[in-house]
Write a structure and sequence with these properties.
The chain is an alpha+beta fold. The chain has helices at 40-50, 67-70, 152-163; strands spanning 6-10, 13-17, 21-25, 28-32, 59-61, 80-82, 86-89, 92-95, 101-102, 107-111, 120-126, 129-133, 168-170. It has one domain (6-85, 98-170): Metallo-beta-lactamase, Chain A, CATH 3.60.15.10.
Length: 182
């Protein structure tokens, strides 16, 4: 993780930071949910500490289109941006049917509606297991009922789909966690 997300109250308003994840697969450098963080310099420093620079990022994935998950996408000017139904590079919009999409041999985007109708989860298969970057969970402690969900029933189904394959969950606004067995 480049940035561990959070949601907390502040006298001036809510403080919201998205979980930002770096995935390297062969020659692909993928950043998932480059959204709100306390400072862009901190995000770029975390990236640099991992090796790549902003121009090395080949792909950016949005789990959904809320600003707290997308606002820093322009930090990666050479990246192709992916969402639930298309890929974007410069002024080129390459559409596809909404649903699952193989990004690399080890990274797959799957439809997981619920928080929004357009949510996707990024699954990264590693030798340690399958990591799921997702907003199906805000954090390891919930909430069980998503207060902003557009469809809680769909979200519950998406969570079951993710749990069927993931060994580690990287939630939208919190530290990574291993789901309990069963």
């Amino acid at each position: 993780m480049l940035h561990e997300g959070y949601v907390r109250e502040d006298p001036r308003g809510d403080r919201v930071g998205s979980s930002v994840t770096l995935i390297a697969d062969g020659d692909r450098v993928i950043v998932v949910d480059p959204g709100m963080v306390s400072g862009r310099d901190a995000l770029l420093a975390a990236l640099a500490a991992s090796g790549p620079g902003p121009d090395d990022v080949t792909d950016v994935v949005f789990s959904h289109h809320h600003p707290d998950h997308t606002v820093n996408a322009a930090l990666f000017p050479r990246a192709t941006v992916h969402d639930h139904w298309a890929s974007y590079q410069g002024d080129l919009w390459t559409g596809r049917d909404p649903g699952d999409f193989q990004l690399t041999p080890s990274v797959r985007l799957i439809a997981t509606p619920g928080h929004t109708a357009e949510d996707i989860t990024t699954l990264a298969a590693t030798s340690d297991g399958v990591y799921a970057c997702t907003h199906a969970w805000w954090g390891p402690d919930g909430p069980e009922q998503d207060p902003l969900a557009t469809d809680q029933t769909a979200l519950d189904q998406s969570r079951r789909r993710i749990l069927a394959v993931a060994t580690v969950i990287i939630p939208g606004h919190g530290p990574a966690f291993r789901p309990p067995a069963g």
